[in-house]
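My current task is to audit a protein record that another person submitted. I need someone to confirm that the token line plausibly describes how this chain folds. Take the sequence as given and treat only the tokens as open to question. This is what I was given:
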Amino acid sequence: MNGNRLKIASLGIQHVLAMYAGAVIVPLIIGGALGLTAEQLTYLVSIDIMTSGVATILQVWRNKYFGIGLPIVLGCTFTAVAPIIAIGNSYGISAIYGAIIVSGIFVVLIGKYFGKLVRFFPPVVTGSVVTIIGITLVPVAMNNMAGGEGSSDFGSLSNIGLAFGTLLFIVLLFRFSKGFIRSISILIGLIAGTIVAFFMGKVDFSAVMEASWFHMAKPFYFGMPTFEITPIITMILVAMVSLVESSGVYFALGDICGKKIEEKDLVKGYRAEGLASIIGGIFNSFPYTTYSQNVGLIQISGVRTSNVIYTAAGMLILLGFVPKIGAITTVIPPSVLGGAMIAMFGMVVASGIKMLSHVEFASQENLLIIACSVGMGLGVSVVPGLFSQLPENIRILTENGIVAGSFTAILLNILFNELKIKQKKPDIIGEPKAS
């Protein structure tokens, strides 16, 4: 019995380690970009770890109303990073959490009908949106590689050396390792880079020393949420893209576990993600989605039992109540973080391109959808004042690159693929067009 418990515990730790880097780096990036204090950043990391555990339990616990019941681990979606930073800089931190709460409620309400909306989010749309999100994140990584915007040693050789050294270490580790070590290569790279930075005098442990050993989660830690139209639209779009991604993970896990995924299972899975986002908004954390790296771990280990995931979720919740552990992650220098960000944000772009690989590129319409949406998203991000002279109610759809690019992709897909004339011949005879 004890041997079995030990095995379950060790497998649970593996799942925590596999998703830990992704779970902590999101609040570190967002908190750094929004200028949070060390104390606030420690809270943000700790509460994110805790709510990841709560969100995972909501998804694994299969009941009448929510929870798909598959061995899924949830964490903050990377697709939310750039939108959250943009919202925080333009509308304040309170608007972030108002938008997250509303997007969570939206997902819970439309979960039953989302299967019918999926047709408006084919690979040509989701691939374009995820690619835009990844591209808009890259400048954040580059600023961190140089030492963090506004730092006294911005662009110094020591910062550049640390950043590229961390990135090179991650690449080499990924290239020459296998299995579990490969799956946590980002985490190992961050630890190695921080150790080197310590000997260079770039690591400050004061935040760890000042952090308490235990704290309670506080609803609305950063103040009461506010509700602004643009942030809400932005987070709803992020949530819908996240649901499309999650659907793929559900089917992949169903195949691994030998379980047929039906419409009612998808609905309960969507509702669990919506509830997780509502909880994230209330406790000033983030929207949550399925973590594909843990799916890979299940495939490698061959262990598909829910007990292991419940154990991992319990560990995450316990870790979230210990601020000292959360504070340890805040000592990672910006340049080390920046090196790892290039790999991770590049993977977001690569994920978008992978989604686009399912698109029929023989279709000129699909090429135009991708070209216009990515061009619009990147253009608005680079030149945010482009539409500053437009009326405010129109700027809602144009002032954010991700929203502008997403709406461009959705509308052009409807125009070219949903409303196309049935009798229209494909561009290449004998090859039917697909979206």
